[in-house]
């Protein structure tokens, strides 16, 4: 006899409507977060930064740039991952200590460029000589190395004030969303925590998990209660059950989205186990045509593309415009208008001498401040 699937409770449609609204407010800024990288690095921040770096490395590979170098500012890292400047520095130090992270500073103005050493990372993920070469085209092998990712919603870092809390909330939301889609009971039902599985799915340590749960409870987003259920033999076993308060979550998301001006952004369409949708390489493109606002500068022959306003500065004095040698760093560095200090008087051929006579006349000296003529 085949049993029919359980029908959703009457409150399930309202729960699904809340989830759809939450998905809309979460927006498209999500990261394919690999818990296996957290276990490798020992830090959520390092695993999150490395996960996002691998995404950009793959996009560069698909774009034909096989060297793997890319640059990002601290603000761009924060916008994409939610990591603060201190968390970024800590994550970079951890990754460099592992030998999977390379940095260099170059360009004018100087930018900090990053590169993931895929060879070193592959050897750490597959010890014992099981790793040969990192091939993005072999999705099965990449999935074996990195493990199945989960979606990390960047906006939750701003909402909770913590990367670990955002990781936990992202996982709990994805779990409930999946269960409701599969027809599991919804409404006001509580779900049982499986802490061992949850730590494996998020990469959080026991201390990080307890801290993240406490932070979410303080914000009234997560509700928990102790319960007991019967196991084989009729014995009772204590457990902790949880549920998300979507009314509070949606209200906080709307406020956070309004602050970040991302309300109404399209939902992230990436499912776990697949690659993130291609995004524009905003921090990769180098501008070939600089923005030069001054008309005189637009006609300069040689322009430094790194400095939009440094092609040729405006010279306000007429002698400066025709100066043969000008220092481009000084706006008024043409022929200096010296007055009353030095006078140059060239001789003529009729004088019988091709020499140049120079007479210095200093005001206030003996004999008056006038100008002497050459003999």
Give an overview in words.
- α1 packs across α9 (163-181), α2 crosses α3 and α9 (163-181) crosses α11.
- The strands form four sheets. Strands 2-4-3 form a three-stranded antiparallel beta sheet.
- The model is unreliable at 1-10, 262-290, 302-313, 328-334 and 354-375 (pLDDT under 50).
- It contains 14 helices and ten strands.
- It starts with 11 loop residues before the first helix and ends in a 16-residue tail after the last strand.
- It is α+β, with helices and mostly antiparallel strands.
- A hairpin with a 4-residue loop joins β3 (101-106) and β4.
Choose one word for the global shape: globular
Biggest β-sheet: strands ordered side by side in the sheet: 2-4-3
- Structure class: alpha+beta
Nearest-angstrom radius of gyration? 34 Å
Q: Average pLDDT value?
A: 75
Strand content: 5-15%
Measure the end-to-end span.
130 Å
Poorly predicted regions are 1-10, 262-290, 302-313, 328-334, 354-375
Number of E-type strands: 10
Helix content: 25-40%
How many helical stretches? Answer: 14
């Amino acid at each position: 006899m085949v049993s029919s699937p359980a029908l959703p409770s009457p409150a399930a449609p309202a729960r699904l409507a809340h989830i759809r609204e939450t998905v809309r407010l979460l927006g498209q800024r999500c990261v394919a977060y690999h818990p296996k990288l957290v276990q490798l690095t020992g830090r959520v921040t390092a695993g999150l930064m490395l996960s996002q770096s691998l995404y950009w490395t793959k996009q560069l590979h698909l774009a034909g740039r096989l060297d793997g170098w890319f640059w990002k500012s601290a603000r761009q890292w924060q916008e994409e991952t939610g990591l603060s400047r201190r968390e970024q520095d800590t994550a970079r130090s951890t990754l460099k200590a592992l030998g999977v992270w390379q940095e260099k500073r170059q360009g004018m103005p100087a930018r900090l460029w990053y590169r993931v050493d895929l060879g070193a990372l592959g050897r750490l993920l597959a010890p014992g000589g099981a790793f040969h070469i990192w091939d993005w085209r072999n999705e099965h092998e990449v999935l074996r190395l990195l493990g199945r990712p989960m979606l990390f919603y960047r906006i939750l870092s701003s909402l909770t004030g913590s990367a670990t809390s955002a990781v936990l909330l992202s996982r709990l939301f994805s779990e409930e969303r999946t269960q409701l889609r599969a027809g599991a009971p919804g409404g006001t039902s509580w779900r049982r925590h499986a802490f061992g599985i949850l730590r494996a799915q998020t990469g959080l340590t026991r201390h990080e998990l307890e801290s993240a749960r406490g932070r979410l409870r303080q914000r009234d987003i997560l509700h928990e209660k102790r319960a007991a259920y019967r196991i084989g033999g009729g014995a009772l076993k204590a457990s902790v059950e949880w549920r998300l308060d979507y009314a509070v979550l949606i209200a906080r998301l709307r406020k956070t989205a309004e602050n970040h001006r991302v309300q109404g952004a399209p939902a992230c369409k990436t499912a776990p186990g697949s690659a993130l949708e291609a995004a524009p390489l905003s921090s990769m493109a180098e501008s070939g045509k600089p923005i030069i606002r001054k008309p005189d500068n637009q006609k300069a022959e040689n322009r430094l593309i790194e400095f939009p306003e440094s092609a040729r500065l405006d010279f306000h004095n007429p002698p400066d415009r025709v100066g043969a040698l000008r220092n481009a760093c000084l706006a008024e560095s043409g022929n200096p208008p010296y007055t009353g200090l030095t006078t140059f008087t060239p001789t003529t051929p009729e004088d019988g001498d091709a020499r140049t006579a120079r007479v210095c006349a200093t005001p206030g000296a003996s004999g008056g401040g006038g100008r002497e003529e050459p003999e």
